[in-house]
Amino acid sequence: MKGFDFDFLTITVTDVMDILFVAFLIYYTYNLIKNTMAVNLLLGMLIIIVLWFVVDALNMRLLSAIINKFMSVGIIALIVIFQPEIRRFLLLIGKNTFLQKNRAWWGYLFGSRDIERDNLVRIKPIIDACKSMKKSRTGALIVFVKFYDDQLFANSCEMIESKISKRLLESIFQKYSPLHDGAVVIAENKIKSASCILPLTDNDKLPPQFGLRHRAGIGISETTDAVAVIVSEETGEIAYAKQGRVRMNVSFGELEKLLNKDF
Ligand SMILES: Nc1ncnc2c1ncn2[C@@H]1O[C@H](COP(=O)(O)OP(=O)(O)OP(=O)(O)O)[C@@H](O)[C@H]1O
């Protein structure tokens, strides 16, 4: 195909399309993994690749041999490490044969405006429910995941698949509800399940007042990309767990900002 011809290089329409497709792929992949632990893993891999080039250029044979061995299993390691992301990616492609069928695609591909608007709609009932549960000293544990992993929550959860609503959250966590024990999981704009038993953290540096509810919220944020909001039954205080770290005494303004960013 004919294109532009600068003395030293020729750019064809196919080249432009090629570059656009690669840019599109990078942007899409970034959107899929942003705010997840996969970003850190990817960064780790990039550092190793840069190191590999440097070591090779400096002719450091021993280190080069070690990194070479590591890189030879790299592709398999990548598939294992990014298995959840690859699965998600393929699932999304499978589910959405026509782009127009699902507006979420446009959010992923062309910006966050719609997502932001959706966020306000879905975050408000959650904040309102937390306000009311704080007031009534109702203990609650709400976990937010980008994509619901059936395997992770298969054992204990009661599936709900409902629109996010303040009254539903309050009803689930009220003391006499059969589902009040355990966590509610919110994903893909829905209350997906309730009464979920989560892995507990074994961090021994947590404040002594943190019991099982807090430990479960922190535990799930350590092992997955989930964030957790914990309403204490004893004090009404709100805690926010992300990547194994916990913020205590979170105000509702902060909670809104955090959820807007992470959820
Ligand atoms: N593995 C778990 N996964 C999810 N939820 C759990 C788990 N273990 C306990 N919980 C929830 O935590 C509740 C017990 O909370 P506990 O009093 O030990 O927590 P806490 O961190 O001290 O919080 P609070 O300030 O609300 O008392 C249980 O009723 C149950 O709902």
Automatic annotation (TrEMBL):
GO biological process entries? cAMP biosynthetic process
Name the UniProt record assigns to this protein: Diadenylate cyclase
UniProt organism field: Pedobacter hartonius
Oligomer and partners = Probably a homodimer.
Top-rank taxon: Bacteria
Report TM segments: 6-30, 37-55, 61-82
Reaction(s) catalysed (UniProt annotation):
2 ATP = 3',3'-c-di-AMP + 2 diphosphate
Q: Which HAMAP family match?
A: DacA
Top EC class per UniProt? transferase
Its gene is dacA
